[in-house]
Specification:
CATH topology: Phosphorylase Kinase, domain 1
Protein name: cyclin-dependent kinase
Largest sheet: 5 strands, antiparallel
CATH class: Alpha Beta
Keywords: ATP-binding, Kinase, Nucleotide-binding, Serine/threonine-protein kinase, Transferase
Pfam families: Pkinase (PF00069)
GO molecular function: ATP binding; cyclin-dependent protein serine/threonine kinase activity
Strand content: 35-45%
Number of domains: 1
CATH superfamily: Phosphorylase Kinase, domain 1
Catalytic activity: L-threonyl-[protein] + ATP = O-phospho-L-threonyl-[protein] + ADP + H(+); L-seryl-[protein] + ATP = O-phospho-L-seryl-[protein] + ADP + H(+)
Strand order of the largest sheet: 1-2-3-5-4
Helix content: 10-25%
Order of helices and strands: EEEHEE
Number of strands: 5
């Protein structure tokens, strides 16, 4: 990643560069430290909302990456210009 943008209740957002395309993207790492029962429902709701939202002011989800132990989850997003 290039730099940390902001931290909130459910995750930390980083500015990153896509190595394939060179595009600047946002990567949100979901906080999983307090989760004892798998994927947090709040994260599922956020991902679902981002996937169905079609608006110029809403980022587009490019990919979702899950670590092998479900301990790290990233949402890769970019802004349509």
């Amino acid at each position: 990643y290039l730099n940390r943008i902001e931290e909130g209740t459910f995750g930390i957002v980083y500015r990153a560069k896509d190595k394939r395309t060179g595009e600047i993207v946002a990567m949100k790492r979901l906080k999983m430290e307090r989760e004892k029962e798998g994927f947090p429902i709040t994260s599922l709701r956020e991902i679902n909302t981002l996937l169905i939202a079609q608006h110029p002011n809403v980022v587009t989800v490019r990919e979702i990456v899950v670590g092998s132990n479900m301990d790290k989850i990233f949402i890769g997003m970019f802004q349509k210009l």
